[in-house]
Design goal:
This protein is of the alpha+beta class. It contains two helices and four strands. The strands form two sheets. A two-stranded antiparallel sheet has the order 1-2. A two-stranded antiparallel ribbon has the order 3-4.
């Protein structure tokens, strides 16, 4: 049984993908390459709300982490 702290995943066309990535691609009708990540503006790795998801690079994602560690989460996203 999966822990409640793991990222939710789904199986699509025989491949396991992040639920957040799947939701982002379906809602935005986007096809993302392997180097593009789906970032969580709310910093909750279990969140799949489309308004909390944005695409970016791994470097963007790391900058988000640093900003979160320095300033905390934007309470409008909770």
């Amino acid at each position: 049984m999966a822990s409640s702290k793991t990222r939710p995943k789904i199986r699509y066309r025989g491949r396991q993908v992040s639920a957040a990535r799947f939701v982002y691609c379906v809602v935005n009708r986007a096809v993302l390459d392997g180097s593009t990540v789906v970032r969580h503006r709310c910093h909750n790795k279990c969140c799949v709300r489309p308004e909390h998801l944005i695409e970016g690079s791994a470097a963007d994602n790391k900058r988000d982490d640093w900003d979160y560690w320095a300033n905390g989460v934007d309470f409008d996203l909770l």
